[in-house]
């Protein structure tokens, strides 16, 4: 499988029960299930508790106290590592509710200006314009529930 | 105690642990707390329907609401906490400061006047001097608090402070206060029975804070020598007595680097961090709260109380420390609490729980104790190392980083110490061995969350969020 971790893609191939190749390097590893999402891992002489759960294309793992969130990426998608939209596409930082919308389509905005406020767990989080530009589109209104992913507001660079 | 329990819950908490652990649970409304946990009349109705004789308000929501305490009493229910008037007095920061000052308890210089116009607040801010703290007059728990370092920053943050105060506490009155540089947060646990007898259960230090919310709490505070401890604990008892306090409460102080301390506020409820006190004194504070509410006298006098060793609590939050601590609600695919000698885990979740976006991000409290501070500290690091939460981000690694940091290890902490410690470093790429183990585990197939988990109704954002698939 190919895993994306941060900005980097890692390629893991399995050649036999215990022989793996990770980014071109040979590694011996094996696990035995020890409960739901829980495994006893072994690499050479070293034994490590391994916890792994998958939800969609996301893999959550904790290996010997180190935690990782990995994204499973298809081989052709892996070629272009950048999967985010343009820098002017602003998405919700977390699931929450829109409590303020300070701009309308067509407004000129300044870099650093607060555009939209999303509230979750009693915390206000402002979406800030990354550049001077114009509001090209706006997908939300006050009261909307939002989640990370789609752009809530799109800023087009310009004078 | 052999007491049968009835819990209340909102639609978002259908799968919550408190619902499963109670003998019975009553649905009181929709997910937003204003439509469930803050609806007094609905909670009282649930209490009547269930035939309960007492109400424990916990430590959030209505726990410090004077009207709720009064209405419980009017409905013939025992409210496990102080009377409405006590909440009313101590919940009003201005009145509280004036009251304890009358009894000789020192307070921080500030402004708590009725004139709340922008110009007046700006003038007062300039008079008190910067840096300056802005707090909701009815607030608590660090919510809605801001620090301004100069007049321009003060004016720009004022509207937000008002809004947050209004949305969190239903009131936008603000108080201003001198911001003491590098203070420690030291608080005194008190316990008063209904017969006028009161004791303190010593202090807790909660100096490790992030945006005025506590992250790590411990007892004892290593900043106090024996005579300072005696003075601050006595001041705690005096402040509580000044309010005719009954039940468990906490008097919070700022301790400045010179050793002077100032009354901050009193929390008229049980606190999140009460377990560290329980660990060093061998007491059950909730049991004592219930006994006091039943009218029983305190079962011990001050001289019988001697703390043993050291205890530290870490708050495990559903948040992403590498993205500005932004909340990380969602489904927990696997939860593994730590265990071992001198380790306690008070958790609100388990495998399959959904952490709702509506409430506080805290999902568990992990507490470790030991004969010395360092024994407790290292035991807590080990416990956090063994804690597993898959499916959402948590501050687990951040807590370990803080516990291992030089300022915390040596005890040179203050409320701004997290800035000194710095952010959690960018995560290291996984080693080849770890990736091979993860691949092997995925191939073996049992890494899918078990399917026996029932999904709550249509409001569940995880059922509807695009791009999220559950296997």
Question: Which key features would you list for this structure?
Answer:
heterodimer; A: nine-stranded antiparallel β-sheet; B: alpha+beta; eight-stranded antiparallel β-sheet; 22 strands; globular; disordered C terminus
Helix fraction of chain A, binned, reads under 10%
Shape of chain B: globular
User: What's the gyration radius of chain B in Å?
Assistant: 23 Å
Roughly what fraction of the amino acids of chain B lie in strands? Answer: 15-25%
- Number of H- or I-type helical stretches of chain B: 16
For the largest beta-sheet of chain B, the strand count, sense and barrel status come to: 8 strands, antiparallel
Number of strands of chain A: 17
Instruction: Return Rg of chain A in Å.
Output: 21 Å
Q: Give the overall shape of chain A.
A: elongated
Mean pLDDT of chain B, to the nearest integer, reads 91
Distance between the termini of chain A: 45 Å
Order of helices and strands of chain A: EEEEEEEEEHEEEEEEEE
**Helix share bin of chain B:** 25-40%
Model description:
The complex is a heterodimer of chains A (159) and B (471). Helices cover 3% and strands 58% of the residues of chain A. Chain A contains one helix and 17 strands. Chain A has one helix spanning 75-79, and strands at 2-5, 8-14, 19-22, 25-28, 30-33, 38-43, 46-55, 58-63, 66-73, 89-91, 96-101, 108-109, 114-120, 123-128, 133-138, 145-146, 151-157. In chain A, a hairpin with a 2-residue loop joins strand 13 and strand 14 (123-128). Chain A is elongated, with a radius of gyration of 21 Å. Residues 77-84 of chain A have low confidence and may be disordered. Chain B is of the alpha+beta class and 471 residues long. In chain B, a hairpin with a 5-residue loop joins strand 9 (184-192) and strand 10 (198-210). Chain B starts with 5 loop residues before the first strand and ends in a 7-residue tail after the last helix. The interface between A and B is large, with 61 and 61 residues.
């Amino acid at each position: 499988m190919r895993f994306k971790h941060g900005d980097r893609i890692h390629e893991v191939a399995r050649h036999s029960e215990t022989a793996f190749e990770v980014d071109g390097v040979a590694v011996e590893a094996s696990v035995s299930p020890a409960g739901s999402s829980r495994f006893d891992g072994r690499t050479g002489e070293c034994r490590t508790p391994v916890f792994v759960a998958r939800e969609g294309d996301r893999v959550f793992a904790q290996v010997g106290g180190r935690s990782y969130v990995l994204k499973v990426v298809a081989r052709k998608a892996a070629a272009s590592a950048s999967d985010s939209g343009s820098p002017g596409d602003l998405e919700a930082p977390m699931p929450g509710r829109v409590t303020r919308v300070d701009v309308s389509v067509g407004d000129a905005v300044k870099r650093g200006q607060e555009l939209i406020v999303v509230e979750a767990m009693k915390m206000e989080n402002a979406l800030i314009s990354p550049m001077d530009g114009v509001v090209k589109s706006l997908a939300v209104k006050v009261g909307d529930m939002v989640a990370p992913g789609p752009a809530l507001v799109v800023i087009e660079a310009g004078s | 105690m052999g007491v049968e329990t009835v819990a209340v819950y909102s639609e978002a908490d259908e799968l919550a642990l408190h619902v499963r652990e109670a003998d019975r649970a009553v649905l009181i409304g929709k997910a937003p707390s204003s439509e469930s946990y803050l609806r007094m009349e609905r909670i009282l109705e649930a209490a009547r329907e269930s035939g309960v004789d007492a109400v424990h308000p916990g430590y959030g929501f209505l726990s410090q609401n004077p009207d709720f305490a009064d209405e419980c009493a009017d409905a013939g229910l025992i409210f496990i906490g102080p009377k409405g008037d006590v909440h009313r007095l101590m919940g009003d920061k201005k009145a509280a400061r004036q009251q304890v000052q009358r009894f000789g308890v020192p307070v921080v210089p500030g402004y708590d006047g009725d004139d709340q116009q922008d110009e007046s607040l700006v003038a007062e801010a300039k008079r008190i001097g910067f840096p300056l703290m802005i707090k909701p007059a009815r607030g608590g728990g660090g919510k809605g608090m801001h620090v301004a370092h100069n007049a321009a920053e003060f004016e720009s943050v004022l509207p937000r402070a008002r809004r947050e105060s209004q949305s969190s506490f239903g009131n936008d009155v603000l108080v201003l206060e001198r911001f003491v540089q590098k203070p420690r947060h030291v608080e005194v646990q008190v316990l008063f029975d209904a017969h006028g007898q009161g004791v303190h259960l010593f202090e807790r230090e909660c100096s490790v804070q992030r945006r005025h919310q506590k992250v790590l709490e411990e007892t004892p505070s290593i900043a106090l020598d024996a005579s300072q401890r005696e003075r601050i604990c006595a001041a705690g008892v005096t402040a509580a007595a000044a309010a005719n306090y009954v039940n468990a409460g906490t008097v919070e102080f700022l301790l400045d680097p010179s050793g002077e301390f100032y009354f901050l506020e009193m929390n008229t409820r049980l606190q999140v961090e009460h377990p560290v006190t329980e660990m060093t004194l061998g007491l059950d504070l909730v049991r004592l709260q219930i006994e006091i509410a039943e009218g029983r006298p305190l079962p011990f006098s001050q001289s019988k109380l001697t703390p043993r060793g050291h205890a530290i609590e870490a708050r495990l939050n559903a948040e992403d420390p590498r993205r500005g601590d932004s909340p990380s609600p969602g489904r927990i695919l696997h939860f593994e609490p730590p265990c071992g000698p001198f380790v306690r885990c008070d958790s609100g979740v388990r495998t399959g729980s959904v952490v709702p976006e509506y409430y506080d991000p805290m999902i568990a409290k992990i507490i470790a104790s030991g004969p010395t501070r360092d024994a407790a500290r290292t035991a807590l690091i080990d416990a956090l190392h063994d804690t597993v939460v898959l499916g959402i981000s948590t501050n687990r690694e951040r807590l370990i980083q803080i516990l291992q940091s030089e300022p915390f290890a040596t005890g040179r902490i203050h409320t701004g110490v997290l800035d000194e410690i710095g952010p959690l470093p960018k995560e290291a790429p996984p080693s080849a061995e770890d990736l091979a183990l993860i691949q092997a585990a995925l191939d073996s197939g049992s890494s899918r969350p078990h399917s026996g988990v029932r999904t709550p109704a249509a409001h569940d954002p995880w059922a509807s969020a695009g791009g999220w698939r559950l296997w």
